[in-house]
Write a structure and sequence with these properties.
- With 202 residues, the protein is mainly α.
- The chain contains nine helices and no strands.
- 29% of the residues are buried.
Length: 202
C-alpha cells in the first residue's frame, strides 16, 4: 500500500512547484520594480529605522535646544514610534512615567494634564524632550549620564558618577545597552534623516 501511495504523494509535491515558482517570480518582479525607482531602499530604511512626527520633533528640538536626532533615537529605542505602555506604567512614544509626567507638569506650569494625554504625540514628545533637556542640563551636557538617568533614574546616574559618566562605567547591563543603542541610533538618524530632522542635508 505504501509503495503505491508514494508516487501519488510525489506527484502532489511536484504539482506545487509551479505555484512556488510563480510566487517567487512575482516577488522578484515587485522587488525589482521597487529597486529601480528607489522605493526599496526607502522601505528598508523606514522599517529598520522608522521616523514619524518629524515636524513635532523638529519643533521641540528648536524650542528646547535638544538635538533632533537624539529625540528621534530615544523614541525609537523606547517605543519604535508606537503608543506603548510598559509594565511600570510608562506611556507613549517616549515612555513617560506617571511620576515624571507630574514633575514635568509642575515644572512647566501645566494645570490640566491627564495621564491619557501621554497618548498624544505632541504632548508626549514635548514632555519627553523637556525631560531630556532637564537631564542634559543637570549633567552638564553629558549624554551618557543624561540617558542613563532617563532609563534608570537620576538617583542611579548620580551614584554612578553624574556629569563625566562614561558608557563603560554604567554598572547596569540593561542601562548600559540602552545608552549605547540610543547613541548609535542618534548617529544613524542624523545621517539618514538629515533633511527630515532639519539639518539641511539628506
Amino acid at each position: 500500500m505504501s509503495a503505491r501511495a508514494r508516487p501519488r504523494a510525489a506527484g502532489r509535491r511536484r504539482s506545487r512547484w509551479p505555484i512556488f515558482a510563480g510566487i517567487a517570480v512575482l516577488v522578484g518582479l515587485v522587488v525589482g520594480l521597487l529597486a529601480v525607482n528607489g522605493s526599496f531602499d526607502e522601505a528598508i530604511k523606514e522599517f529598520t529605522l522608522p521616523l514619524e512626527h518629524e515636524d513635532i520633533i523638529r519643533r521641540q528640538a528648536a524650542e528646547k535646544g535638544v538635538d533632533a536626532a537624539l529625540i528621534a533615537a530615544v523614541i525609537d529605542t523606547e517605543s519604535k514610534f508606537s503608543d506603548a505602555e510598559s509594565s511600570a506604567g510608562a506611556r507613549g512614544l517616549m515612555q513617560i512615567t506617571p511620576a515624571a509626567a507630574k514633575f514635568i507638569e509642575k515644572q512647566s506650569g501645566g494645570t490640566t494634564f491627564k495621564m491619557d494625554d501621554l497618548s498624544n504625540p505632541e504632548i508626549n514628545i514635548r514632555y519627553g524632550t523637556f525631560l531630556l533637556k532637564e537631564l542634559l542640563e543637570r549633567y552638564e551636557g553629558d549624554k551618557a549620564a543624561a540617558l542613563a538617568a532617563y532609563n534608570a533614574g537620576p538617583g542611579n546616574a548620580d551614584k554612578w558618577g553624574g556629569a563625566g559618566l562614561t558608557v563603560s562605567e554604567i554598572p547596569f547591563p540593561e542601562t548600559r545597552a540602552y545608552v549605547e543603542l540610543v547613541l548609535e541610533r542618534q548617529k544613524e538618524y542624523r545621517e539618514k534623516y538629515a533633511s527630515e530632522l532639519g539639518y539641511g542635508g539628506g
